[in-house]
């Protein structure tokens, strides 16, 4: 029996999907990229963006039509708002928060599905399926009987997340991996649905995080990203019991030096309110802590930031950037920006353009505002016309392209260390990323380089990417930019 999962949204959803894969494959299901072959179809959903939710409805309507000609079961999990959940209950066979993944095998059995693992020993009864789940991929302690989620749990999607973390993921890559270190959010930005889809902030035990990271490094992973809605508030929910985010990075940096292994560790995403110099200083000290910072600003106008309930000012944000430039001058800078938020005036938008020019981001993920049910701003008038949102989006993108090109041109003539990630869309080329996550493509048909560090001399640049030739001579004599 085969399964197919559609993963939507952020890197956290991708990481969640890796644990879903592990549970299903431990039950004997086999993954297929062709959804028409699957007996089990699922979505890791994202209620944060309307476009992502629209994709869920498109998928489930198609899948439900297939039920007229074959037997299949559908499920949805991930970041799901209560309003979306109520609608999904009428469309999907199974709907559950990701924190209840440990009970997924019981949900499937109670639905009447005979799993591949169950077929191997049908005479023992389906109640013995748990004992056949291989170790250590899924710990026996987390395979508890599924119970219908209570009203209390509906209001607290974070409940049970610790048991979810005990499931070892089925990583989607052999050289890049995500490690969740925290779940949920306490910030309640007025535009955001995350506190309602993932609940309050919960920090994962640091010993589990460090163990997973060390296992990945020992297996040869080269790029590891620490995930959380507000990674730099890590440990604050367990004061006196857990270390801080800066201390967690310090332990990772110390391990990196002691291991002698070559790898990069990233994190996303921090909140400006909690970003201190201690984090920046630790990053500057250790080679394995990647010199790339993703720091969402959302708007360059103080009045807008207040309406967004961001809890930081432009000046507070500016001080953080100055610290980054002082302590890690080589670091690249990424951000998130929303255009067309409720009431955004032309002056407020121009203030955002000014900070784009001031901070010269290497990358900005720019979103056209759309209200999400549950978020505070959904009660406000969505009064910026779509045409204006689109125009502001394109204007800001053009500004970003200008700064990206300016930075990338400075790389021409330099030799940079890159991680090869796969074949490029340009025929006969491989695609790679620098430590600062600048795209580098170079001519090669050697697939064995994928997942490896190589050195490339940059010879041309465009916005968001560069191109060069792989260096095969002694890079130490060339003045390499890592």
CATH topology of the largest domain: pyruvate-formate lyase- activating enzyme
**Uncertain residue ranges:** 114-154
**Widest β-sheet, arrangement of strands:** 2-1-3-4-5
Q: What percent strand? A: 15-25%
Indicate the structural class: alpha/beta
Bin the helical content: 25-40%
Number of strands: 18
Instruction: Give me the CATH superfamily of the largest domain.
Output: tm_1862 like domain
Number of domains: 3
Write a concise synopsis of the structure shown.
The protein has 482 residues and is an alpha/beta fold.
Structural topology:
Elements lengths: L1 E6 L3 H16 L3 E2 L8 E7 L3 H17 L6 E7 L2 H7 L5 E2 L8 H7 L5 H4 L31 H5 L5 H5 L10 E5 L1 E2 L10 H4 L4 E2 L2 H13 L4 E5 L17 H15 L4 E5 L8 H9 L6 E3 L7 H6 L6 H14 L4 E8 L6 H14 L3 E6 L17 H24 L5 E9 L5 E6 L4 E5 L9 E10 L2 E6 L12
Parallel strand pairs: 1-2, 1-3, 3-4, 4-5, 6-9, 9-10, 11-12, 12-13, 16-18
Antiparallel strand pairs: 7-8, 14-15, 14-17, 15-16, 17-18
Helix pairs in contact: 9-10, 10-11, 11-13, 14-15
């Amino acid at each position: 029996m085969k399964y197919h999962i559609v993963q939507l949204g952020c890197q956290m959803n991708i990481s969640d999907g890796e644990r879903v894969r592990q549970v299903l494959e431990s039950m004997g299901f086999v993954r297929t990229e062709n959804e028409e072959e699957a007996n089990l179809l699922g979505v890791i959903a994202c209620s944060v963006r309307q476009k992502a939710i629209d994709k869920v409805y498109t998928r489930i309507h198609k899948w439900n039509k297939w039920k007229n000609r074959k037997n299949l079961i559908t499920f949805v999990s991930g970041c799901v708002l209560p309003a979306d959940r109520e609608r999904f209950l009428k469309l999907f066979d199974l709907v559950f928060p990701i924190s209840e993944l440990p009970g997924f095998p019981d949900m499937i059995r109670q639905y009447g599905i005979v799993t591949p693992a169950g077929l191997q020993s049908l005479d023992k009864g389906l109640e013995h399926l748990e004992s056949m789940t291989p170790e250590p991929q899924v710990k026996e302690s987390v395979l508890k009987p599924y119970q219908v989620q209570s009203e209390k749990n509906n209001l607290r999607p974070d409940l049970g997340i610790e048991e979810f973390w005990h499931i070892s993921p089925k990583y989607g890559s052999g050289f890049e991996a995500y490690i969740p270190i925290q779940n949920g959010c306490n910030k309640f930005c007025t535009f955001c649905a995350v506190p309602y889809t993932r609940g309050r902030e919960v920090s994962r035990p640091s010993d589990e995080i460090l163990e997973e990271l060390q296992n990945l490094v020992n297996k040869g992973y080269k790029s590891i990203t620490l995930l959380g809605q507000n990674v730099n508030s890590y440990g604050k929910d367990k004061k006196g019991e857990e270390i801080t985010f800066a201390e967690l990075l310090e332990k990772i940096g110390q391990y990196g030096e002691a291991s002698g292994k070559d790898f990069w560790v990233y994190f996303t995403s921090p909140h400006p309110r909690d970003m201190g110099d201690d984090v920046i200083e630790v990053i500057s000290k250790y080679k394995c802590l990647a010199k790339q910072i993703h720091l969402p600003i959302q708007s360059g106008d103080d009045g807008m930031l207040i309406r967004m309930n961001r809890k930081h000012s432009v000046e507070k944000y500016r001080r953080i950037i100055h610290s980054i430039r002082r302590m890690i001058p080589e670091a690249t800078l990424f951000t998130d920006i929303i255009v067309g938020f409720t009431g955004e005036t032309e002056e407020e938008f121009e203030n955002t353009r000014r900070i784009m020019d001031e901070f010269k981001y290497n990358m900005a993920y720019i979103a056209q505002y759309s209200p999400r049910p549950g978020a505070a701003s959904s009660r406000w008038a969505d009064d910026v016309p779509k045409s204006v949102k689109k125009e502001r989006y394109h204007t800001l993108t053009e500004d970003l392209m200008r700064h990206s090109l300016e930075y990338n041109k400075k790389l021409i003539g330099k030799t940079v260390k890159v991680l090869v990630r796969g074949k490029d869309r340009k025929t006969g080329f491989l695609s790679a990323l620098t430590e600062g996550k600048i795209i580098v493509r170079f001519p090669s048909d050697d697939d064995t380089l994928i997942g490896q560090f190589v050195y490339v001399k940059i010879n041309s640049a465009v916005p968001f990417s560069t191109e060069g030739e792989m260096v095969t001579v002694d890079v130490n004599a060339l003045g390499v930019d890592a």
